Amino acid sequence: MKQKSKITIMLIIAIVIQTIFFIIAGINKSYIHMDEAYSLGLASYDKVEIQENQDFYNTWHTKEYYEDYLTVNEDEKGNFAQVYENQKNDVHPPLYYLILRIAMGFNIGSYSKWPGIIVNIIIYIFITIFMYLILQKLLEGKNQYKEKSVILALLSSITLASITNVIYIRMYALTTLNILITTYLHLKLLGQKENNIKLLILIGITATLGSLTHYYYLFYLAMLFIMFVLKYIKEKDYKNLGKYIGTILIAAVISLMIFPYSIKHMFFGYRGQGAIQNLTNISKFLGSIGQYIVRINAYGFNNLLFILIIAIIGILIYKKVKKVKLFENRNKYFKYIFLPTLFYFIIVAIASPWIELRYILPICGISFILVIYLLEELLNNLVKEKTLNIILILTFIIILIFPIISNRVIKAVYGDGFILEPEVMYSSKKDIVNKLEGEMNVPTLYLFNSQNNRFLDDILLFAKIDESYIAKDINLTEQNVLQIMEGKDLSNGMVVFINEGQENDELLDIIKKALGLEKIDYLERLNACDVYYLK
């Protein structure tokens, strides 16, 4: 009982520590990615794209017009229909957006990053608990394995990837939780001679929720499913095989009954078609894998993965030369975590439309514990327990401080342009947001090339600027500049946004001459455009 209380207290402390990390990162989050804007809009707006509004282009709007896309208004509190309808017309299943919509309902009428971040903070409480439970299975039998499991679970939750997962207002934290619950339930199933009906029901529920959260979850589930089917066939356990297959089939049927549009998304939508084409493009394979390894190194291991791999290879070579047994004991659980994780990583690396950290966020934490576990296992019969613990403690400390060390090296070589931090914190955007919301809150003109439509990357700024005008595919002349800016107070200047595919200098020169302005200051490169201040 004392041991159980001790572990419970340790878990609570771990959750408090990670939550402090998450809140600090949330406070410092200064901007949002286009997909985060989609999350907020799809959960609350009456259509997928604000640009679909007939009055969107070529007219002046106040900040409230854009903020409406990012918020739940008073008259929308009880309306959840748009969540389902928007997802039907988009490319993802609806579960995460429903949860986000409920959270946004606690902050009516104004934009806030916190409903999305708080949802993910709560999700990460359960992620850490299930990471601990999985680690318990892996480390079972070792000295103080429960304490080690808590520490490893905490460490996996405060890597840059995990912090990104929390402050990124998307479904990837929920997908991470679905994967971990699925993994833990399958590990429990391994230890049973007769499949427990309650356990199978839980697996079925989790599979349903996972498929209603993100389609990439199905890659992980698919490998687990294949492994368990092969296991039952090898054991000639056809009774349990039938129960297990039946559970997954029922989950699939229920998922499709709730959201039948999944079939269209996965096989006939542009994302599904793109993923299928990528899976058949062998030439893309190695390049994508390499780029994703670089990302998981930087964010999933705080830039220490390659050092850990070199250490593991070195120990393997040493043990082979010295004829030392590689592993003290063969862990029956390891392959049921490792192979689905590897399969997910490879398939997502090939299938994903872009090389982006977000697609592998759901397996960053589990990849982290697998590598640390492998290192610990290789050292286990090579050094004494005390020495092993010192090595692991030093590894943990280095992982925590490595982003700081990396940043100093990067700045020394490349200057201040890059900071290794949670990917969507956007700390470098803090100044431009403050300027355009404060001292430079002046009439704003966006010269918009619709061939490069990433307006939602910058909608947050337009939700903070008092008045703005989106000029779509305009053939800019001095005359139409004067027409657009007629009646506007330019005594404090104006701001101009220009996205890709245009001749910025020529356009700025036309505006300057038409309005009699004297100087042009380049302010910032945002996610999708350049910003200038003219006065």
What would you say this structure looks like, in words?
The protein is mainly α and 535 residues long. The chain has 2 domains: 2-32 and 113-414, no CATH class; 427-534. The protein has helices at 2-28, 34-44, 63-67, 81-89, 95-104, 114-139, 145-157, 160-167, 172-190, 197-211, 217-234, 238-258, 262-268, 270-279, 285-300, 305-322, 334-351, 361-380, 385-414, 430-437, 459-462, 478-484, 504-515, and strands spanning 60-62, 444-448, 467-472, 494-499, 520-525, 529-534. It has a 6-stranded mixed sheet with strand order 1-3-2-4-6-5. It is globular, with a radius of gyration of 26 Å. It starts with a helix and ends with a strand.
Layout of SSEs?
Elements: H1 2-28, H2 34-44, E1 60-62, H3 63-67, H4 81-89, H5 95-104, H6 114-139, H7 145-157, H8 160-167, H9 172-190, H10 197-211, H11 217-234, H12 238-258, H13 262-268, H14 270-279, H15 285-300, H16 305-322, H17 334-351, H18 361-380, H19 385-414, H20 430-437, E2 444-448, H21 459-462, E3 467-472, H22 478-484, E4 494-499, H23 504-515, E5 520-525, E6 529-534
Parallel strand pairs: 2-3, 2-4
Antiparallel strand pairs: 1-3, 4-6, 5-6
Helix pairs in contact: 1-6, 1-7, 2-5, 5-6, 6-7, 6-9, 6-18, 7-18, 8-15, 8-18, 9-10, 9-11, 9-18, 10-12, 11-12, 11-17, 13-14, 15-17, 16-18, 17-18, 22-23
